[in-house]
């Protein structure tokens, strides 16, 4: 991590921005990864790589946050490599695994051939095909779109179907082969230095030894790989927001308007305080989600709820933070030599380009009944920062979401008497009570728009749970926790009002939604204390 910081500090923001604006491939970053064995150390399971190599999710997420702090393009290369490695490490193909371990040592990056131009991530509509030949070989034909690292990947894990049986298949492809055709770079508004591309296989020869998995195993590894790789998105958003925060507060502190420092304006203080608190909440949720993911087992699959919230809610919170910081720096944020200018472009891509929010929301709402009404006792999950290989994540169980259960979701509020935490708890109890006493009609349940909208309230309920759990574990001061719940209350009320004004409800449901329209308890003394003790000391702590 320290070597990575040194690399980017030497490179400097000016060079990073120059490459970004010119859509230049960052060869120096790739060389650095090879020289320092970064990906080999972080992404090789224990027993396959060197002595200090392990697939440690906590450490892996740290690097996502760190690399995105300097530029999402760098984190994108890393995340796509994680995705490309997933089907390999999850397979029983020892020869490809051994080859992969060596390629990582050689500085290789990897790619994940999943989405297609016409179907996106709709796996059922996949048109990549393997055709069985009389000589025992297969021939692969088809194209893939929005594929990161497609230009220089050492191997590409490609998802498709076997033409004769229509069963799913994952197979490894060498981009240097003459039957692999790199069609083009897809020019996006963000991650310009990275490579997002389209490639096609034209009668590409595939041996049995190239096949990673078939049938249900291939399907399961596709979902499990996404669970690990796209989980990195929340940490990427947190990294971007932190860098932008430093740049914004440094800029504002040096500005005098109308004879007053910009940081002395009340509304500017409010914007900084809320953006700071939202970043803290993002990190508290994301880190707690890691604890559950690392501790998961066949009996405890709660991470399947927390992961899509990580991909959807944490990343959308990042958009909120950047919007607030942009309101502070205003025109300065659009100047081409600032980090903020790239943050504005990159932050909105994360919840959209990397898996649309409504897809994750559709998954989240499947857990709502079990989360509220079917309590089960689990052992306490501790902070998981231990240096441990997490190869258990290569054996996830997919499906059977109706069997995923949760403990009493209100237990995290026990012993917490902060005024805004208690107000938020009232909102959650009202929401739960509505679902119990005034259940959704069959028409409402079948209305996808209605359910996706309602899912915002459920998502915020779960988000608050993990934030509060982790605030206790990390001993976050009461003032900050209480402040975090001020915007939680406002957000909950806003979602409730939007639900109320957008759809038809029963009389009982309407009354409950109106009860959710609560206001936080304001406390100027608390806010000023956070401003003085937590935020002002950050001025000048990091400068480009």
Q: Can you describe this structure in just a few lines?
A:
The chain is of the alpha+beta class and 544 residues long. Helix content is 54%, strand content 11%. The protein is globular and about 75 Å long.
Give a written overview of the molecule.
The protein contains 20 helices and 10 strands. It has 544 residues and is of the alpha+beta class. It has a domain at 371-376 and 402-522. The strands form 2 sheets. Strands 1, 2, 3, 4, 5, 6, 7 and 8 form an 8-stranded mixed β-sheet that branches. A hairpin with a 5-residue loop joins strand 4 (153-162) and strand 5 (168-173). The chain is globular and about 75 Å long. The two termini are 18 Å apart. The mean pLDDT is 95. Its cofactor is FAD. One of its GO terms (molecular function) is flavin adenine dinucleotide binding. It holds the Pfam family Acyl-CoA_dh_1. InterPro entries: Acyl-CoA_Oxase/DH_mid-dom (IPR006091), Acyl-CoA_Oxase/DH_mid-dom_sf (IPR046373), AcylCo_DH-like_C (IPR036250), AcylCo_DH/oxidase_C (IPR009075), AcylCoA_DH/ox_N_sf (IPR037069), AcylCoA_DH/oxidase_NM_dom_sf (IPR009100).
Features:
single chain; alpha+beta; eight-stranded mixed β-sheet; two-stranded antiparallel ribbon; 20 helices; acyl-CoA dehydrogenase activity; flavin adenine dinucleotide binding
Q: How widely separated are the two ends?
A: 18 Å
How many alpha or pi helices? 20
**What is the subunit organization of this protein?**
single chain
Order of helices and strands: HHHHHHEEEEEEEEHHEEHHHHHHHHHHHH
- Secondary-structure-based class equals alpha+beta
Percent helix, as a range, is: 40-55%
Query: What is the CA-based Rg, rounded?
Result: 24 Å
Shape call = globular
Number of strands: 10
Task: Please mark out the parts with pLDDT under 50 across 5 or more consecutive residues, or reply none.
Answer: none
Main beta sheet, described? 8 strands, mixed
Overall pLDDT metric: 95
Q: What proportion of the residues form beta strands (DSSP E)?
A: 5-15%
